[in-house]
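Thread title: Can someone regenerate the structure for this chain?

I was given the following input by a collaborator and told the matching structure tokens would be attached. They weren't. Posting the sequence so someone can regenerate them.
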Amino acid sequence: MAGRTERCAARPGDRAPVTGNGSGGPRFGLLLGDEQPLVRRGLRALFEADPAFRVQGEAGNGDTLLELAHLHRPDVVLVDADLPGPDVLGVARRLVEDHSGRCAGVVLLTSATGLTESRILAAARAGVRGFLHKRESSEEIVSGVRSVARGGVAMSEHIVGQVLAALRCDHPAAAFRPAGELALLTPRELQIFRLVAQGLTNQQIADVLVLSEATVKSHFNRICRKLALRNRVDAVILAYEIGVAGGVAEQRSSA
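Best answer:
Regenerated them for you:
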């Protein structure tokens, strides 16, 4: 989803599919969850046309989706954010946790109005790694789901901003988590971590620090590995829990 999503590289230990797709590449097991049969049919046709995916099943409610997940152990699950049945965030948490340490990637498919800030934050904390809008193109949806299946994340650019707004309401200023783990970061990585916590994109950080976007991305991937972060949302949450988010002065520096 070029220009619309933020992704973090897969971490060591993230699950990877082993089944070939006939052309030497991985093939990801996929479950679909949406109340509308026509929507499910369209999504199934979309992903069955892509050799990277194997559609393992579809469900019209949360209970059935959980049953299918237990049966098939998918690599990724694409779920309508308004799926009937148990609360979708509880369903997402179960999908992530009920895989004996091998997390299923969960992607929420939202309506044009999207999710509220508090729901996005709760979903991220539940382990959701993708937030895609139904209005996005077929190519963007497939690309985003593929990124999550590979262990990364996919979300619209405004999601990080919404999470920041929710965090400012939840944790106005106080730190409630020790900051010692930041000692794992180099000075440059700490700079980038703080700028990510402000909601800046890789390109914006590159402009501030006078670096290439690729260099910033490489630094951020190392930050993810060192701090066991899944994505930028995790980085923002950690920054607020430690008490280093917000009000960080932009510092221009030579590479």
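The chain has ten helices and six strands.
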